[in-house]
């Protein structure tokens, strides 16, 4: 069927269905299994997090669990929305132009791809900021009172920010287009002014979120090691904080490995002005989607209750994690990791303000 340029909607102006696409069983089943596994893993992780709330007595741990619930819910909905569209196309081979003559459906999927793509990265950076303040500025954090309602508000603000970015192509900054092989829509990656601006915005927001997470998590880990290795007997136990940092580090690593190839590819394509290589785009998009499948395993596996069952011979008594971190650190640096005066000042300052903080909770199971 031929269509004139005047009658072609914007989202079909580059790639207009029907495509010469050979339907394969492998592609249909790959998308189905891929989506089903991701939805199942995220659902299990969400149940695990909900069961952890009643046993949590620390305010910082409760806030962290709220952020994790927001991340799990975002990953689940992202797979549900985009996966259902892709799987439906592979099994039915519907014609987008007949089903969506005004591009509303295509714009919705493009917005979903951007929204559910940026949210995990922004939430990861937000959790890194929360842990940075909680570990490095405990007195300031206790004064600001990070309550559960405030944590929920922050998650909603992150969703609102990602939603606003996804709406920009609808008001002229960039545009959403049908992508080969016709099962999905995404923003146009080109060197044209408006498209270039949105491509760079998407890439830079993602890369900046990863960079912020890496920087703040590194500082938090160094500070936590210093505090954990202190010889001050009055220092409160920080095993649950070590557990949260381990989970956050894994979240950051998974996001970096899965998303950096796509973000760098978009930036490189825009600046080089070269034609879009659709095969690389499809490869990196699928690679980025693995983030939504691997994330839940961080919450499912990296908990003390699970690790105690996997490694029952280890010493999981109260304070054991602190002792292990301290021993490994000293072995790696060959000296006192506190480095003299700085560590002592940190411990003294924390002890000075300890009375303002909440009572130390018992170590989680």
Automatic annotation (TrEMBL):
One of its GO terms (molecular function) is thromboxane receptor activity. One of its GO terms (cellular component) is plasma membrane. The keyword Disulfide bond applies. One of its GO terms (biological process) is adenylate cyclase-activating G protein-coupled receptor signaling pathway. Keywords: Cell membrane, Disulfide bond, G-protein coupled receptor, Glycoprotein, Membrane, Phosphoprotein, Receptor, Transducer, Transmembrane, Transmembrane helix. Residues 347-356 have a biased composition (Basic and acidic residues). It comes from the Eukaryota. Residues 41-299 form the G-protein coupled receptors family 1 profile domain. The keyword Hydrolase does not apply. It is found in: Cell membrane. The chain crosses the membrane at residues 28-50, 62-91, 111-133, 154-176, 196-225, 246-266, 278-302. Its main location: membrane. It is a multi-pass membrane protein. This is Thromboxane A2 receptor. It comes from Salmo trutta.
């Amino acid at each position: 069927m031929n269509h004139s340029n005047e009658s072609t909607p914007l989202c079909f102006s580059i790639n207009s269905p029907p495509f010469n696409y050979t339907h394969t069983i492998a592609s249909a089943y790959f998308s189905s299994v891929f989506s089903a596994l991701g939805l199942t893993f995220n659902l299990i992780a969400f149940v695990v997090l909900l069961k952890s709330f009643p046993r949590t007595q620390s305010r910082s741990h409760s806030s962290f669990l709220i952020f994790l619930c927001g991340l799990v819910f975002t990953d689940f909905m992202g797979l549900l929305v985009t996966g259902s569209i892709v799987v439906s196309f592979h099994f039915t081979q519907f014609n987008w132009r007949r089903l969506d003559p005004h591009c509303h459906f295509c714009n919705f999927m493009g917005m979903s791809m951007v929204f559910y793509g940026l949210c995990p990265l922004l939430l990861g950076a937000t959790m890194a900021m929360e842990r940075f303040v909680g570990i490095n500025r405990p007195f300031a954090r206790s004064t600001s009172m990070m309550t559960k309602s405030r944590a929920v508000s922050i998650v909603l603000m992150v969703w609102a920010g990602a939603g606003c970015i996804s709406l920009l192509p609808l008001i002229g900054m960039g545009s959403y287009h049908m992508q080969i092989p016709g099962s999905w829509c995404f923003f146009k990656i080109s060197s044209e002014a408006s498209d270039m601006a949105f491509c760079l915005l998407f890439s830079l927001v993602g890369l900046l979120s990863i960079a912020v997470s890496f920087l703040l998590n590194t500082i938090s880990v160094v500070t936590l090691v210093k505090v954990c290795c202190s010889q001050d007997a009055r220092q409160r136990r920080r095993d649950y904080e070590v557990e949260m940092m381990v989970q956050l580090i894994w979240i950051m690593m998974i996001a970096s490995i899965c998303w950096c190839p796509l973000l760098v590819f978009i930036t490189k394509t825009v600046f080089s002005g070269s034609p879009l290589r659709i095969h690389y785009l499809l490869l990196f998009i699928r690679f980025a989607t693995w983030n939504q499948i691997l994330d839940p395993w961080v919450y499912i596996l990296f908990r003390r209750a699970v690790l105690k069952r996997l490694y029952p011979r280890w010493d999981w008594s109260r304070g054991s994690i602190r002792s292990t971190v301290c021993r490994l650190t000293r072995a790696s640096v060959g000296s006192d990791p506190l480095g003299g005066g700085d560590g002592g000042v940190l411990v003294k300052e924390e002890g000075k303000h300890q009375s303002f903080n909440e009572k130390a909770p018992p170590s989680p199971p």
